[in-house]
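User: Hi! I have a protein structure encoded as tokens and I'd like to know what sequence might fold into it. I'm fairly new to this, so please keep things simple.
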């Protein structure tokens, strides 16, 4: 699945959107594949890849929360599918 087929956002324990600074996907070498700014990612900017670059287990999604520390707070990264993946969602608890 490429990043162009999902949106990303950070949600509080009550389900409200947190104003994240941005998102970045890096490859195994630490290079930025794509990045996005703002609390709700719907448009990826190209790095060494683009929004159509397939994700693999060797890529990492990072979230910039600015000065907020999510540790133990119940915050989640929510990935929502678009296009042919429109009904799919996946959540990952932030550390």
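Assistant: Happy to help. Inverse folding works backwards from shape to sequence: for each of the 95 positions I chose a residue that suits the local structure. Here it is:
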């Amino acid at each position: 699945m490429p990043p162009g087929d999902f949106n990303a956002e950070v949600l509080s324990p009550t389900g409200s959107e947190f104003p994240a600074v941005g998102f970045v996907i890096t490859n195994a070498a630490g290079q930025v594949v794509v990045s996005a700014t703002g609390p709700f990612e719907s448009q990826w900017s190209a790095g060494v890849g683009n929004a159509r670059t397939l994700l693999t287990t060797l890529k990492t999604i990072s979230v910039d929360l600015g000065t907020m520390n999510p540790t133990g707070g119940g915050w989640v990264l929510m990935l929502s599918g678009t296009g042919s993946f429109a009904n799919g969602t996946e959540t990952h608890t932030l550390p």
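A useful reference point when you look it over: The mean pLDDT is 91. Feel free to ask if any position seems puzzling.
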